[in-house]
């Protein structure tokens, strides 16, 4: 087990798995969790009984009480942004109003695309860099780059459409960043 410590003026970051889930302790306050590049997907369904499953590239999973939106929002807050700002940016720049991808870091391809609308109880966010393909059977099976698979009720065409939105948004924001920074 590797422990990563980063000190800041107000925060102490403890990472039990580098780049996976960072846990933030703000001087005795409630622990907060963040997602990173080794997260394959985040999901909350009726089957998970209100808990959110975070699946890592190495095959491990972790269960947390935060919703996927809360996890992504806390991650974006570390980068001086928010989930609301990310969605508004997608709406104004890319004209995506539903199923808008959440860009955490476009040059590193750290983008999560949703499979459900944001007001749905069931929330699935797939990391686009770990998505390989979706194949329709009785239910759709999503395959990831680490050999893991996941069965969902969505159609493969819907999943590919959401993933294409993520790729287009990543490409757009990478070009904007190169041009202006």
Give the key terms:
Competence protein ComK; ComK; four-stranded antiparallel sheet; single chain; 181 residues; six-stranded antiparallel sheet; alpha+beta
Describe what this molecule looks like in 3D.
By secondary structure, the chain is α+β, with helices and mostly antiparallel strands. The chain has one domain. It contains 3 helices and 13 strands, in the order βββββββααββββββα. A 6-stranded antiparallel beta sheet has the order 7-6-5-10-9-8, sandwiched between helices. Strands 1-2-3-4 form a 4-stranded antiparallel beta sheet. The protein has a 3-stranded antiparallel beta sheet with strand order 11-12-13, with helices on one face. A hairpin with a 4-residue loop joins strand 12 and strand 13. The relative contact order is 0.13.
Write the layout of secondary structure elements.
Blueprint: E1 4-7, E2 12-15, E3 21-25, E4 32-35, E5 39-44, E6 52-56, E7 61-64, H1 68-78, H2 83-94, E8 102-105, E9 110-114, E10 123-127, E11 131-136, E12 140-144, E13 149-152, H3 156-180
Antiparallel strand pairs: 1-2, 2-3, 3-4, 5-6, 5-10, 6-7, 8-9, 9-10, 11-12, 12-13
Backbone CA Rg: 16 Å
The geometry reads as globular
Biggest β-sheet description: 6 strands, antiparallel
> Taking strands numbered 1, 2, ... along the chain, how are they ordered across the largest sheet?
7-6-5-10-9-8
Our measurement of the CA-to-CA distance between the termini, rounded to an integer number of angstroms, reads 37 Å
Residues in helices, as a percent range: 25-40%
Mean pLDDT equals 80
How many distinct helices?
3
Short description:
This is Competence protein ComK. This protein is α+β, with helices and mostly antiparallel strands.
């Amino acid at each position: 087990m590797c422990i990563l410590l980063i000190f800041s003026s107000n925060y102490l970051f403890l990472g039990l798995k580098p780049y996976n889930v960072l846990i933030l302790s703000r001087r005795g306050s409630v622990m907060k969790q963040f997602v990173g590049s080794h997260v394959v997907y985040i999901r909350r369904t009726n089957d998970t009984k209100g808990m959110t499953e975070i699946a890592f590239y190495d095959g491990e999973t972790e269960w947390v009480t935060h919703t996927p939106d809360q996890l992504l929002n806390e991650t974006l807050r570390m980068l001086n942004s928010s989930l609301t700002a990310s969605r508004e940016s997608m709406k104004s720049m890319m004209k995506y109003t539903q199923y808008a991808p959440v860009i955490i870091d476009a040059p590193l391809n750290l983008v999560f695309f949703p499979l459900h609308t944001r007001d749905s109880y069931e929330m699935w966010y797939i990391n686009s860099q770990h998505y390989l393909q979706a194949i329709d059977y009785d239910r759709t099976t999503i395959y990831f780059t680490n050999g893991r698979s996941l069965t969902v009720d969505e159609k493969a065409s819907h999943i590919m459409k959401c993933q294409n939105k993520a790729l287009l948004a990543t490409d757009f924001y990478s070009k904007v960043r190169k041009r202006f920074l």
